[in-house]
Amino acid sequence: MGGVTVDGVVFDLDGVIVDSEPVWEEVRRAYVAEHGGGWQDDTQRRLMGMSTGEWARYLSDELGVRRTADQVAAEVVEEMARRYAARVPVIDGAVDVVRRLAAQWPLGLASSSPTRLIAAALAATDLTDAFRTTLSTEETERGKPAPDVYLSVARQLGLDPTRCVAVEDSSNGVRSAAAAGMAVVAVPHGAYPLDPDARRLAVTVLDSIDELTPEVVDGLG
Predict the structure, then answer these.
(1) What whole-number distance in Å separates Cα of residue 119 and Cα of residue 168?
(2) Are 96 and 210 in contact (CB under 8 A)?
(3) CA atoms of 16 and 101, how far apart (whole Å)
(4) What distance lies between CA 144 and its chain's CA centroid?
(5) With 0-12 CB in 10 A as exposed, 13-18 as middle and 19+ as buried, what is 164?
(6) Taking the mean position of all CA atoms in its chain, how far away is CA 31?
(7) Cα(183)–Cα(185) distance, rounded to whole angstroms?
(8) Which runs of consecutive H residues, i.e. helices, occur in 128-169?
(9) Alpha-carbon distance 76 to 52, whole Å?
(10) Whether 143 contacts 112, CB under 8 Å
(11) What is the pLDDT along the chain (221 residues), one digit of tens a residue?
(12) 146 alpha-carbon distance from chain centroid
């Protein structure tokens, strides 16, 4: 950002605050198998960042699931909600990091999760009040890697996206935030490493979320 003041921070949810990517993979894999589809080696990587409508169509059209996209979305999200009701898998240190940053900057949340799962995750982590605005790609035209959700969150915060820092874990998420003009902090999940182009787009890459201090954010300005 080259000397620009940081005016706000926008977090992704899945893989940054909640360790939900493995749960999504487990639920969708089982669903595909149950309904006659075929899971591919690159399926999980492709799905990360897609909006609900996009991944539901992908399972129905590309993987051969014998259900309509609307049925896929409703049934998979219902199972995820059931899992979340039992336990939301919070990433160690993430809640404290969000709270520390919320004390200094307005925060937004730009998530590929459906709105009802965002609400469930934030309620379970007691972070609902930490975010000025939250947005699901359900409500944008395109999911990640398109910049739509990050641009919309910046607009809702009343901030210039080029003066915002984004916190992402996935390649498509990094691409999305970078395309919106944000400085991206990447915290990749051990099981889903960043693609080389996404790693190059990130301003900094951290090993874990608890390395994201206010000083690190300030240093990105």
Answers:
(1) 19
(2) yes
(3) 14
(4) 9
(5) buried
(6) 21
(7) 7
(8) 148-157
(9) 10
(10) yes
(11) 666 799 999 999 999 999 998 999 999 999 999 999 999 999 998 998 899 999 999 999 999 999 999 999 999 999 999 999 999 999 999 999 999 999 999 999 999 999 999 999 999 999 999 999 999 999 999 999 999 999 999 999 999 999 999 999 999 999 999 999 999 999 998 888 999 999 999 999 999 999 999 999 999 97
(12) 13
79, 31 contact by CB (below 8 A): yes
* 66 within 8 A of 38, measured Cβ to Cβ: no
| Integer Cα distance of 176 and 146 in angstroms | 5
Helical packing angle, 115-125 and 69-86, nearest 10° = 10
Residue 4 contacts residue 162 (beta carbons within 8 Å)? yes
Q: Are 221 and 1 in contact (CB under 8 A)?
A: yes
Within 13 Å and on the Cβ side, how many CA atoms surround 121? 27
Amino acid at 84: Y
**Closest of 134, 137, 149, 141 to residue 182, by C-alpha:** 149
Q: Kindly report the length of the chain.
A: 221
Helix (H) or strand (E) holding 56: helix 52-57
Measured CA distances, 138 to 118, 141, 185, 191, 193 (Å)? 11, 8, 24, 25, 25
Side chain identity, residue 80: M
